[in-house]
Amino acid sequence: VFLDELDTHAQTLSTQSLALENATESDEKQNTIKIMFRAAHSLKGAAMAVKLDPVKTVSKHLEDVLSDVRDDKIEVTAQLISKILEAADVVSEIGQRVRRGESLDLTSLNRLLPKLQELCATTDDTPTADPSPAKIASKSVQSAPQAAAWPTKPVGKTDSVSPALQAAPPEQSASIRVAARKLDALLAHSGELLVARGRLSLRAKDASELRESATEFRSKWNAARAIIKMQRGDVTRESINRAHGILESASESLVRLSRQIELLTTGMESDNRLLKQTCGLLDDEIYNARMLPFADACSGLERAVRDIATATQKKVKLTIEGADVEVDRSVLEGLKDPLLHLVRNAVDHGIEKPADRVANGKPPTAKLTVSASLRGGQMEVLVEDDGAGFDLERIRAIAEKRGMEIPDDAREQARLVFAPGFSTAKLITDISGRGVGLDVVQSRVESLHGAVDVSFIKGQGTRFTLKVPLTLTTIRTMLVMVNDQIHAIPTTSVERLVRFGINEVHSTAGRDTLLLGDAPTRLVSLASTLGMKSKGLFAGKSTKGLAVVLTTGQQRVAFVVDEVLSEQEVLVKNNGARIRRLRHFSGCTLLPTGQIALVTNSSNVVRTALGSVHDRSDLAELKQKSRRRKRLLLADDSVTTLALLKNILEGSGYDVLTACDGKQAWELAKVNTFDAVVSDVDMPQMDGFDLTSKLRGSEATAELPIILVTARGSDRDKEQGVQVGANAYIVKSSFDQQILLDTLAQLV
């Protein structure tokens, strides 16, 4: 109990000292000092109760300092705040050592006490009449610090520590504070659950009576049948009357049995509704009891900002918004490290020194904001600064030096900072330069079934966006079937479902794509991404496909699945100690059917799909194996290009008929049969777009695969090609003959 109290008071001293440093109004300062003094006084009393003299000594000196501050004998300065923060750190360090059962290394305490006494020495040199152990210790430390060091024997053998602390377990059990109103609600719903349980016991009694009635009816019915069967050869009025009496009695039993079944069914349905409602309310309250304010995840951020700003000679004001937004404790714990890394990174890397800010027309004090808000079933956390933004040139240079692939999009280039070991720091220090911060941010957020993204404006600032679910206990998932296995995909990453035909699959740079809206979207098999064999479309066993479109940040991929089963809430369990880490799975769940479904890590699945090389899909390989000698129509107004492409295609086993422009190609298509068309765009008389449009408008060539090979590489031209009906679009500037052959293999 004392150790928990110690942590609370140390945290209060730390946070309130930062508030005191930033306070501007006199009333605000006095109120803050009052809170700090109360924390120091309570800590001193608790330490005396368990006979932990080092903590009592620090607390007594803090009381003296805060008393002088309250009486305006000491001015509030950065030096004073630093010493109070150092005192809070020393108290926390002692508490941690006691909690772990380690020996007390009081070197930090011996360095601190002279500093605290020095603060009071200039205002009150009068010796106190109370020769308390704290005063004696502090005087000893002031005169001979090393000789006055507290004993560093194991805690269990230290005379100044009470037996209660000696018996403290080494490990700290997780605990949270729950509001009384939440516990009252839990107790109330628990009582309602007992009522429902009592009603179910009555239903069990009804079911027992029903079983007895059914047994009685069966016995009477069998007796009547036996009499009739025995008397078939010699039917007498007596036997008929006897059988009739038994059947009448059985009929009455049947009526009673039907009535009991009806009552039991009605009662069970009513009880089931009550139990469902009560359990739902109880689940909600248990969920609420686990909810903690976002402010808890931000504890320590102000201190970190102040320490780094002081060390780097910068001025930074931290603002926390949405502090009262509540989120599950497990999510909150998972957010602490990412937030700390992002804040440290912003102060050390993103924010400029005051002189540089003034030279760029900015105020000398930078703004750093950490905010939380609810977005549906997720919490969105923003970490924003008004610093210099990203230096893309340096990011590209470092990526190139490390042999990393550099994307064309500036936003994707900025995401390179999440790569393991990536750092733009020119000097490795105790603050940064080791390249682990942002990698940790991404991995930790993704382990929470969340995603992280970054955006910036050069010279104006950077924004990191973290999206995480409100709870990890239960999540909403979409259950899909992949290679006869059920997988649960968190719905927070599901954008839409798409049904498509093989003719709607296009090829861009050798990759399968679907046109969703105006944006080509990468199409892959979820089975192959997870290392399994594909079925259906990608196995060549179907011409129709079903895809689940997943989005994480700005990345989007359509994953082909065998079947979508349902959408439901599931209870997520970890994979256990034997399975340390599965890249594509973050947990598992037990379904009502008894089957186990793995919960996918959407971010890693999307990243794997986008990072795959230009491999042929299973469908392409299957088609190439069974490919007969296909006939192609090749159209291009350049003699050189025409000859080059013809040689490539004929060398790969195709029969090729050439046309020098779109009009000639159209005339040839009307009188010949082709398996595919490969055409340029810029041609006289009829360009490639018009040729494609005409081919699509003719019933004979409406389904003919068309590949446009052109020098036009803009997104607008690509979209126009898709709109007129082209199946693939290959840019000559990045032409690779294998890409052309792979694309043909997929289409013909």
Could you explain the architecture of this structure?
By secondary structure, the protein is α/β, with parallel strands linked by helices. It is built from 23 helices and 23 strands. An eleven-stranded mixed sheet has the order 10-14-15-13-12-11-23-22-21-19-20, sandwiched between helices. Strands 2-4-5-7-6 form a five-stranded mixed sheet. The longest helix is centred in the middle third of the chain and has 53 residues, at 237-289. It is flat and about 105 Å long. The two termini are 74 Å apart. Residues 122-160, 613-619 and 621-627 have low confidence and may be disordered.
Quick structural gist:
By secondary structure, the protein is an alpha/beta fold.
Order of neighbouring strands in the sheet with most strands = 10-14-15-13-12-11-23-22-21-19-20
Distance between the termini: 74 Å
Q: How many H/I helices? A: 23
Strand content: 15-25%
Oligomeric state of shown chains: single chain
Helix content: 40-55%
Per-chain topology:
Layout: H1 2-22, H2 26-49, H3 53-70, H4 78-100, H5 107-121, H6 133-143, H7 163-166, H8 180-230, H9 237-289, E1 291-293, H10 301-312, E2 316-321, E3 326-328, H11 329-350, H12 354-359, E4 366-375, E5 378-385, H13 392-401, H14 410-414, H15 437-447, E6 451-457, E7 461-469, E8 474-482, E9 485-490, E10 494-501, E11 506-508, E12 511-516, E13 519-525, H16 526-529, E14 544-552, E15 555-561, E16 563-571, E17 585-590, E18 596-600, H17 602-611, H18 618-625, E19 631-635, H19 639-651, E20 655-659, H20 662-671, E21 676-679, H21 688-697, E22 706-710, H22 715-724, E23 728-731, H23 737-747
Parallel strand pairs: 2-4, 9-18, 11-23, 13-15, 19-20, 19-21, 21-22, 22-23
Antiparallel strand pairs: 1-3, 4-5, 5-7, 6-7, 8-9, 8-16, 10-14, 11-12, 12-13, 14-15, 17-18
Helix pairs in contact: 1-2, 1-4, 2-3, 3-4, 3-5, 3-6, 4-5, 5-6, 8-9, 10-11, 11-15, 18-23, 20-21
